[in-house]
Design brief:
mainly alpha, globular, DUF2267, DUF2267 domain-containing protein, DUF2267_sf
Length: 124
C-alpha cells in the first residue's frame, strides 16, 4: 500500500482529513518505535512505505508504557483530544494489520500490553 492510500484509509476509519490522518500515522508510528524493541521496529519499518519508515524510530532500549500512555503521546504530538487520538490509534493499528504480513503484525502486537489488541478492529 502506498502512503497516500494508507493515509486515506486511516482518515476514513478515524473520521479525520487525510492531512490529520498523516499526522496520526506518524505520531502512532513514533510511539510504536519508542515501545518496540530495536529488532521489531526494524522489521516493521521494512514493511512500511518508504516515506513512513522515518517516522518509526529504532531505539536501543524500548520504553515501557501502556495503552493510556501511548494514546497520551499521540494526543500530545497531534494536538488531538484523547478521544480523537484513541480513534486515530485504532485506525492506524487496524490499517497496519491489513497492510503488513500477519507474522510481522503478530510480533509487533506481542510486544505490547494485551489492551492494545482491543484497539484493532475485527476483520470483516
Amino acid at each position: 500500500m502506498e502512503c497516500k492510500e494508507f493515509f486515506q484509509t486511516v482518515a476514513e476509519r478515524a473520521g479525520q482529513s487525510r492531512e490529520e490522518a498523516a499526522d496520526l500515522t506518524r505520531a502512532t508510528l513514533g510511539a510504536l518505535g519508542e515501545r518496540l524493541s530495536a529488532g521489531e521496529a526494524r522489521r516493521l519499518a521494512l514493511q512500511l512505505p518508504e516515506p513512513l519508515r522515518e517516522s518509526l524510530p529504532v531505539r536501543d532500549k524500548s520504553e515501557q508504557f501502556g495503552l493510556h500512555g501511548f494514546v497520551v503521546r499521540v494526543s500530545n504530538r497531534t494536538g488531538l483530544t484523547m478521544q480523537e487520538a484513541t480513534g486515530g490509534v485504532r485506525a492506524v493499528l487496524t490499517t497496519l494489520r491489513e497492510t503488513i504480513p500477519d507474522e510481522v503484525f503478530d510480533h509487533v502486537m506481542s510486544q505490547l500490553p494485551d489492551d492494545f489488541q482491543e484497539m484493532v478492529e475485527p476483520t470483516t
